[in-house]
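note to self: dont lose this again. the chain is below, predicted strucutre after it. 46 aa total, dont forget to put it in the shared folder this time
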Amino acid sequence: MNLIFIFDSELSTLVQTRLIASVATQHSALIAHYLEVYISLVIELM
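---
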């Protein structure tokens, strides 16, 4: 995350926003996938 501070403040904000957006998108997809797997496992075990 320290790399962001190398840029100018305006560019830094843009990069940070895009970085956060991409990370959030990846994480939500990953979380949704794991949740799906977890739920199907729970249903099988019941």
